[in-house]
# Entry
Amino acid sequence: MSPIFPVILSGGAGTRLWPQSRQAYPKQFLSLTSGQTLLQQTAERLFAVASTPPLVICNEVHRFIVAEQLRTLPAGSAEIILEPVGRNTAPAITLAALAATKDGADPIVVISPADHVVMNSQAFEVVTGQAVSLAEDGFVVTFGVTPDRPETGYGYIKPGEQINGSPGHRIAHFVEKPNADRAAVMLSQGGFLWNSGLFVFKASVLLSELEHLAPEILAACRLALDGAERDLDFLRLASEPFTACPAGSFDVLVMEQTGKGAVVELDAGWTDIGSWDALWQLLDKDADGNAGRGDVIALESKNSLVWSEKSLLAVFGVENLIVVESDDSILVADRGRAQEIRKVVARLDAEGSTRHQVHRRVYRPWGSFDALDSGERFQVKSIVIKPGQGTSMQLHHHRAEHWIVVRGCAKVTCEDREIILEENQSTYIPRGAKHRLENPGKGDLELIEVQSGSYLGEDDIVRFDDVYGRE
# Structure
């Protein structure tokens, strides 16, 4: 039996889960169904199958979030490959196959997106074993899920003939994401499966298929991986060849074209949480069909999702609604039109807003900050710095800063002076002074920062020394 090489694809923006999911912090980094994030759940699920840490392929802007979330898990991460730009699933999976064979090995590659939920891990392991056996025989295998509703957010697969008495079937044909009427017809006819986006294949088999199905992608990915450079704990792809790589869907370019395609049925409580309605389907509900998170009240209401981060959120006398409160935005939508919420994101993008890109809380490799309040010449932030971490040595041309320690211990460097601040102590950083803030303690450092000056943008930073390799 060939070894198993697990791979997580951590791309995508999750626009249909706005306002919780945003470009800088998309849905795979959120805790939606448990105390763990979707990425963490995926890593543990694959580790149970392969007994080896997964390779993660992600955009370089998310690298520190991925590393931090995997750091806390027993599985850890063997490698994190950084894409300079997103090129969809075909190049990402091609990279995975190339990485799997870089030392002359030829393992079975198991591909999973980072943003899926599987409720029954044992059933997932059994079906993955079935897929691995088919992959050993030269098939490129995907997982299909029996539909329980006329879902328009998924593609569909029509299974064909059974393969040598195994649980697998050849793929008769694919159906792109249908409209509601077509989805209802397929559900009533039966025999169709949702296309899960999970794949299993032998690395050499896929690379051979790519030679004639997507040779330009294969060549570009080879160049990008051959020219990759080590950056801290990451492998950064060569930017020029990968940026020039054609974008494309693995389903369209490979699975719909190959003669080696196969599907196994996955009955394990799978969903990709592609929308707020999909999340509502998954969550526990009250007697009236309402699902909630946070400080919420649903009175004389039915079949609604009510989601709050900080505020008391009450709904009264409504049905089939999505009501979501985030740190800086509120969404109210018809649950039946959950797939269309991406139109809100498109509108924000067209208007030049940043509320589809970043949350009020912004994550950095050293921790995070939350913009609490701002005015014409001031801004107040709550800052958290992780143990042993710190900011770069830097200065600001247009603002001064006041720091007040709320919890923990801070080491402050300001020009040629170093001081230690304990709880309830404060200091002042003049405009134009070189400075650094560090956490020498074993717990989180929390402080309040008050900025004042003529310009308070995040781009007013001149870095002199940064352990995270940022410019």
